[in-house]
Amino acid sequence: MSDVALNINGAKMQVSAPAGETLLSVLRNRLALTGTKYGCGEGECGACTVLLDGHAVKSCQTLLSDAAGARITTIEGLEEHGQLTPVQQAFLDEGAYQCGYCTSGMIMRATALLKVTPNPTPTQIVSGMNGNLCRCGTYPRIVAAVQHASTLAATRSSATHSSATRSSAQGAAR
Fold first, then answer.
1. Strand, helix or coil for residue 11
2. Which CATH class is domain 86-173?
3. What is the pTM of this model?
4. Dihedral angle computed from the Cα positions of residues 77, 126, 153 and 83, in that order, rounded to the nearest 10 degrees
5. Whole-angstrom Cα distance, residue 142 to residue 106?
6. What count of other Cβ atoms lies within 10 Å of the Cβ of residue 16?
7. Pick the CATH number of 2-77 from 3.10.20.30, 3.30.70.3040, 3.10.50.40, 3.90.550.10
8. What integer pLDDT is reported at residue 133 of this predicted model?
9. 10-51 tens-digit pLDDT
10. How far apart, in whole angstroms, are the C-alpha atoms of residue 134 and residue 101?
């Protein structure tokens, strides 16, 4: 056992665990962050996807020692100021889940995809989501949700920019 420094969802913490333990095991069993799911345990299904320094990784295949010092984001840490992210909201709006088991991994993968490709085509979405499986087959709704999330994110960004511009202009007028 060794103490490993982690930054999970913006909180710095020490975890005492064997360095060879998987990040998934630590998240679920030691930190009670159960939104990240155990699916296949072999890195094939993507149910365990989290963000490591903003990149989607399969936590069942990521050793704790490899995550030390990185910025780890789980589904529990995505919300922004008490509000769902555009991706989370879009998954709800589009009904892009059925049993829900793959949903957290899909949302994390979609979040990473939209960071690098803010306005993806359906083909880019399919390619970017490759490696995350939905056993219920809601793929068309998942693609629609990612497209919708892209629009929501652009709308929020535009609204935030407009609000900041108005505040700045009002301050200058005073």
1. strand
2. mainly alpha
3. 0.89
4. -30
5. 8
6. 10
7. 3.10.20.30
8. 97
9. 999 999 998 799 999 999 999 999 999 999 999 999 999 999
10. 8
